[in-house]
Amino acid sequence: MPPFVPHDYQRRARAHVLETTHCALWMECGLGKSAITLSAIEALLDSGDVRRVLVVAPLRVARSTWPAEVVKWGFRLTVSVVTGTPAQRQRALAAPADAYVINYEQLPWLVKTCGKRWPFGMLVLDEATKVKNRSTARWRALASVRGRTERIVELTGTPAPNGLLDLWAPLALLDRGARLGRSLSAYRQRWFDSDFMGYTWTPKPGADAQIHAALADICLTMRAQDYLQLPDYYPVTVHVDLPHDSRALYQELEHGMFSALAGVDVTATNAAAVSSKCQQVCAGAIYHDEGQGTWTHLHDAKIDALRDLMDDQHGAPVLVAYRFRSDRERLRAAFPAAVDLTDDPAVVQRWNCGKIPLLLAYPGSAGYGLNLQDGGNVIVWFNPDWNLEYYQQFNARLHRQGQTKPVFIYHVVARDSVDELILNRLATKRSVQDILMEALKLRRPGEGACVRGID
Asked: What angle do CA 268, 269, 275 make, to 5 degrees?
């Protein structure tokens, strides 16, 4: 691979990082956020404008993607990966390097370990939506060292996957609330209207344009379709019918779900949680407890549909997104050639070489930083996920620069079920609670779904 030679749009993004001490790159997958940032880091280290750099990323990305990008593009940077056991992290932190890479879960440990002697002059937050919640330990840890860090760069392709309210916490780390308000409540009061109880917040007319304008000087936004020649992609819904016994169980659980929703103040978190049992029935296995320990097999409707889809591909590789561990176990049993993304470190290379016919992956751990476009062009969502960010990021593993074929994204959904409500969420980008509450209004428990999904 030749040394990194930026395209014009990448030069613009690099200049934004160099000229703006606290900034964000909102760039969709495939535009080269990590290479752009590494190029800026190298320039800032060479000029002496920063000392050591800390990169924070999801675990898999921290361990593999950032070190690999340095090698891939020939940057003159030394990298130390601060993951593993406490002893391993201590050794990595003590090793001489230009940049140190750590996962978000270890941020509180790092801040506590460094204490008042914070050694990093530049902070890079990869997939910055990981700090969208101000109440988390990771956000508080970052806020405590913000004043001792000369430069901060936030990277993400999905800055507000669940709505504009997600913007406040990451932006507060950049400007201490100067643009969106010194507190989340101030942000809400200025740009949002709430319901009578104060649980649901919707943007005021024109709020999105005003918010974007307020952030324009520090947030550079670029969409892949404006700069890259990406292949077409085709979302397809494949319906399955639940067997009679499973349909009866589903209706019983759905009645309980809607009864619960009608009797409490619903948040996006608990609205998704109460639908989990229904999704398990749709998938074909139900857990006996909330910890996802033991489970009972119910049906193979979705596995049969996947088998038909694979037959239609005539041997072409297929990437399957699953949600529950029972899904993975049942898929492995049904398809002996299936490989899980976590099986060994060489899985990605084997997939991209065309040596894996069926790759299984959990979107929560496979949605960031992986280049899988060389291995195939077909994604199957064995069961859809409420999390819009996971959905977009996972699809971008194949639908990205370097993909040479149209990408087909199949959604295997149980007819007249919560699966269809989830597809509606993904299509409209509305909140989880809005979708469920609308469904509650549109039908009585046990009746067929009235909400359209993705066609």
From this structure: 90
